[in-house]
Design goal:
alpha/beta; 9 helices; six-stranded parallel beta sheet; single chain; globular; about 15% strand; about 200 residues
Length: about 200
């Protein structure tokens, strides 16, 4: 059975740290592929700046030529508020899935709608992010232990790159060199995004 990594997020815009995390997960967790899943309307964050179509196209450009990486538009196609439980329930049953988290997402995982059901559908793998502890909330740790599930720790050198910083730089006309794939940077410039 195939093992597929799932990396959800706003990808507003997709950047080099997203891609590095996806590649690291594919290699170190021996995944057949990693799917980047752009959120339609994440309910726990401010409204997104780029449209669904622009964010989808930027991910397509970013993963082009990387056979282990793909985009999965399931949340954009569903529309409305984005709940991970709906996404994992819609996944085909012919694979095993690993949901990739940063430590920032891990810290608030127990606020996600039906988080216990999510943890029952997929394995959870966490990668370090700057300034966030690599430890699950007590409630999640207790649930995992009770259900004989484990939290997979993904060795990953944290990269201090954030989409909010990139958006700020673009708004100021500052350089984003070393932060975005070249194809994505050109797309953003061509369409005047984040100005």
């Amino acid at each position: 059975m195939k093992r597929i990594g799932l990396l959800g997020g706003s990808f507003d815009p997709v950047h080099l740290a997203h891609l590095a995390l996806a590649r690291a997960a594919a290699a170190k967790l021996r995944l057949d592929s990693v799917q980047l899943i752009p959120a339609a309307n994440p309910w726990q964050r401010a409204p997104l700046r780029a449209s669904a179509g622009h964010r989808l196209r930027m991910i397509e450009l970013a993963v082009d030529g990387q056979p282990q990486l793909a985009v999965n538009p399931v949340e954009l196609e569903r529309g409305g508020p984005t709940y991970t439980i709906d996404t994992v329930r819609a996944l085909p049953a012919d694979a095993q899935y690993v949901w990739l988290l940063g430590t920032d997402q891990l810290a608030n995982f127990c606020t996600w709608r039906q988080w216990q059901a999510i943890a029952g559908h997929v394995d959870l793998a966490v990668a370090a992010r700057p300034g966030a502890p690599l430890a699950p909330p007590a409630e999640l740790a207790s649930w995992l232990a009770a259900h004989r599930r484990r939290l997979i720790r993904l060795p990953f050198s944290p990269m201090a790159i954030s989409a909010s910083d990139i958006r700020g730089r673009l708004a100021r006309g500052a350089s984003t060199a070393g932060l975005l794939p070249a194809t994505v940077a050109r797309y953003i410039a061509r369409h005047g995004l984040y100005r």
